[in-house]
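Input.
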Amino acid sequence: MDDMSSAASGQPAPTPDELLEAVEVTTGPDPRFSVVWLHGLGADGHDFEPVIPMLGLPADAQVRFVFPHAPVRPVTLNGGMPMRAWYDIKAISASRDQDEAGIARSAAQVEALLAREEARGVPPEQQLRRRRQPASAISPHPQCGRRARRFSCGRAITTATPLPAPTTP
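Output.
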């Protein structure tokens, strides 16, 4: 991770000791591929864990699935109720006030997980990010996916995704 990650949010970049807690499932002893799969609002990393057997992966697949838990934070849209959320959702509207600092912080945290996967021997071109709305909003953020731009790779799957307003990097 580089210095731009902390500058984008105005907060320090996560250190390895501050990595998001996550559920990890491997399909073999020496993973060659990684899937970082983000859950939706109020859920946690266990949300998509049961999907792995349904994917029909080959018996010799060497994949590490990383299902991070979003931090618990108050969510304005839900009356300030604390729940797992990648950022504060203040309203549902096209012109909503966005939690840019929260989006940038979550993007930096996901970037730290991707960097850890690279350090574990899985190159960026063999990493896949799967997101469920509203977690999808952090991936197109300028902070997230820097690895994808740098290595001309980075694959992402997303569903029902409201994108945040463009920001200037």
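The helical segments are 3-9, 100-119, 146-151.
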